[in-house]
Prior knowledge:
Layout: E1 3-7, E2 17-22, E3 25-30, H1 37-48, E4 52-56, H2 76-81, H3 90-103, E5 109-112, H4 115-125, H5 138-147, H6 159-175, E6 181-184, E7 188-191
Parallel strand pairs: 1-4, 4-5
Antiparallel strand pairs: 1-2, 2-3, 6-7
Helix pairs in contact: 4-6
Amino acid sequence: MNHIGIDYGSKFSGTTAICYLEDKQLHFAQSVKGEDADAFVEKMITDLAPKAIYIDAPLSLPGAYFNKGNDFFFRKCDKELDTKSPMSIGRLTATAMQLQEKFDGKKMTFHETLPSALGILLSKEADREWNQKLKNLEPFCALLAEQLPNPFAQKVENWHQVEAALAYLSGIRHIAGNAEVVGDVDEGIIVY
């Protein structure tokens, strides 16, 4: 299945990265600081025309907004993974939900992922520490490369690209039926 992984960052920060397969190698595209990341993502989705998008951004709101429960801040999946509330990153949440709506009906599916959860899982399985604050990407990139069926076309330059690759790997795991899936289908789920 043709899919992409997206690490969605702030609109003008230059931190949005996309991982995709081309010519049997994994490539990265990254937004440019000062330029509109939302327009960049829309263009990449249009150009690549993936069947599935695995995105590191909330794609739903807590159930309380739909008369399902009383928690207006966290979804079940957020609590299970101890991650940020979709409400605390409101612009990112709204942008991701709007992006999903824009491409609805274009024969592509959107899946919310949490790359750090997969990074922690892979590191734990390999008896290594997951720490994005470390300057040296290479040890984790080597571990990540072992999990991917295709090589990187270029050197991974930053943690945003790592998270895009982890989102892509979440897609591989999900498509194969091997992904961890947390949350409530009626409220929102995260796959990794």
